[in-house]
Amino acid sequence: MLSSGGGGTFYWVRNEEETSSASKLEGIVVIFAWGSLDECRLKNYVDLYSSIGWNSLVVLSDFLNPFFPEKATALAFSILNELLEDLRSRPCPLVLASFSGGSQACMYKLLQIIEGTCEAHLNMDDSRLLMTCISGQMFDSGPVNVTGDLGARFALHSSILGSSKLVSLFAKGVTSGLDALFLTRFGSHRSEYWQTLYSSVGLGAPFLILCSENDDLAPYPVICSFAQRVQGLGGHVRFIGWKDSPHVGHYEHNPIQYRTAVTEFLDDSISIFNKKLQKLFERNGMEGMHDKICELICDLQNAAVDSNQSLRRVAVGPTDHFFLPSSLEYQSKESGSLQDEQKERRNGNGNGGGVHVASPPCLNPHSVLGQVLFDACVPKNIEGWDIKFDGRTSFGSGRKRLSLNGLKRIRSRL
């Protein structure tokens, strides 16, 4: 079904085998066609992708989109919403395939929306999903800048507007007039366009560039420079150049080499997608573990605070225990009941002295973090420590040293 996106139209070409078995779908190729790619050639590419097991979303951009980026933005946003309907239910590899000026007529705006550098925005989850699914970028006879003098050459080319001389002259007048009228604006758009393509290296998707030395509309030096710049930025580029094939006619003139290159690239894209999914799962797992560790550390900190507030006794020897109640318990309990409680605990522990902490039941003292808390909060040697309570005298070596018998006498008074 043909849909309109404000700056062009788009439609799906589903793989026939997909209807019989959902597992047959390998991925989605988004074809960005513009001007020079006629319906007959376009069908050849769609059939090629379908034979490999890929669906195609064909995007037909308006000719003036490169001159009016807001039209390209509207089309790109509609395409992303269309893709998300499929990817939300079944994520799969996504390959962006630009033909001729399709990258400037729509594709670069789609990249800007995904990366959040455009006036149109997606929510974070959708952007992350699309970044994960994008597993390759193909450029056939491109990328090129179609504004300015090159745009006029596109307008005069018979493969775009036919052989009518009157139509070609009219198109040349339109493009030249637009370039003269919006000279500064087009200059900033051109810079933004190339910068967006370079920044897409960050998506981690490889590039396949198919071009020809004899292409009068896609200058070979410009494409070579783009490929070298992408490689310099850390991108993986496979560059295939022929000598005499025409603009967007590489598949037609070199079918075997072209099909082999595309098949291998799409297979690699599946591997890239799987690796990106694996990294995403690992990162989410580490983030989840980090959150759990943070929660556990908070619990340990709370347990340490509770243990300091409700400390009952500290072992000072194999059989001797020094018992200090909290201030509230000291006021509410009588000395006899405290001594009875102390005797019960001593009998229950036998000959081993330990630390009793009023900690949450979820804290396991035998765990690694539990042992860390034990060593950090309750040291084995308390000599030299000051133990203070609200409104009471501190006990420690800094003010008054007490012997072990003195400690026992204090305990008996309590």
What does this structure look like?
The chain is an alpha/beta fold and 414 residues long. Helix content is 52%, strand content 13%. It has two domains: 284 residues, Alpha/Beta hydrolase fold, catalytic domain (Rossmann fold, 3-Layer(aba) Sandwich), CATH 3.40.50; 104 residues, no CATH class. The chain has 15 helices and ten strands. The strands form two sheets. Strands 1-2-4-3-5-6-7-8 form an eight-stranded mixed β-sheet, sandwiched between helices. α2 packs across α3. The longest helix has 55 residues. The protein is globular.
Could you tell me the number of beta strands? 10
Structural class: alpha/beta
Q: Mind telling me the C-alpha Rg?
A: 36 Å
Q: What distance separates the N and C termini?
A: 89 Å
InterPro entries: AB_hydrolase_fold, DUF829_TMEM53
Region (Disordered): 334-357
Architecture blueprint of SSEs:
Blueprint: E1 3-4, E2 8-13, E3 27-33, H1 39-51, E4 54-61, H2 69-87, E5 94-99, H3 102-115, H4 124-133, E6 134-140, H5 149-156, H6 158-161, H7 165-181, H8 183-199, E7 207-212, H9 220-232, E8 237-242, H10 250-253, H11 255-309, E9 313-315, E10 321-323, H12 327-332, H13 335-349, H14 368-377, H15 404-413
Parallel strand pairs: 3-4, 3-5, 5-6, 6-7, 7-8
Antiparallel strand pairs: 1-2, 2-4, 9-10
